[in-house]
Amino acid sequence: MTIQVDYGSHDALLVVDMQNDFCEGGALAVEGGSALVPGINAEIDAAQAAGALVVATRDWHPVDHVSFTHRGGPWPVHCVQDTEGAAFHPDLALPDDAIRVSKATAFDADAYSAFGGTGLGGYLKEKGIKRVIVCGLALDVCVRATVLEARREGFDTLLLERLSAAVDSDAVTECRQAFSDAGAEVRS
Ligand SMILES: [Zn+2]
């Protein structure tokens, strides 16, 4: 497995929403989700060995969350707190000291970005993080929002596109343009 990044102590690897519901067999499966796991695990290993922070985000909704279709939202029921669907993919090798960030935990608000309502941006700055490296699911939804908000938060931002997958493959071109316009680097 080729490592894509030369990590350092001012880096944070952001693993976005690698949860059962977003992988094959899940409630909101993204095609190619499970296949990302070995490559992401290799990056986690390399990041940890270099003293970088490893952060894993998870969508973590209450029952009857506002984003669910029966509440008028755009998505089927997914990632309900403490369910199997909300668990991290079983093969994702998160170190014990990886930082877990739960998002969209309120009934009445959705959050796509890892920085949305989580305080993560301030925390990373306190830790001296200058660059975030992003991978995970889904490229055109939560990864997209996370990359763009990382730039707004002032971090150098690198997206590992090979370690991400989109809900709608037709949206990828527009995403790349948005990342480029925001000053994020995309490694394909
Ligand atoms: Zn969600």
UniProtKB/TrEMBL annotation:
Residues 12-186 form the Isochorismatase-like domain. Its EC number is 3.5.1.19. Pathway: Cofactor biosynthesis; nicotinate biosynthesis; nicotinate from nicotinamide: step 1/1. The keyword Flavoprotein does not apply. The keyword Hydrolase applies. Keywords: Hydrolase, Metal-binding, Pyridine nucleotide biosynthesis. It comes from the Bacteria. PANTHER family: LD05707P, PYRAZINAMIDASE/NICOTINAMIDASE. Belongs to the isochorismatase family. This is nicotinamidase.
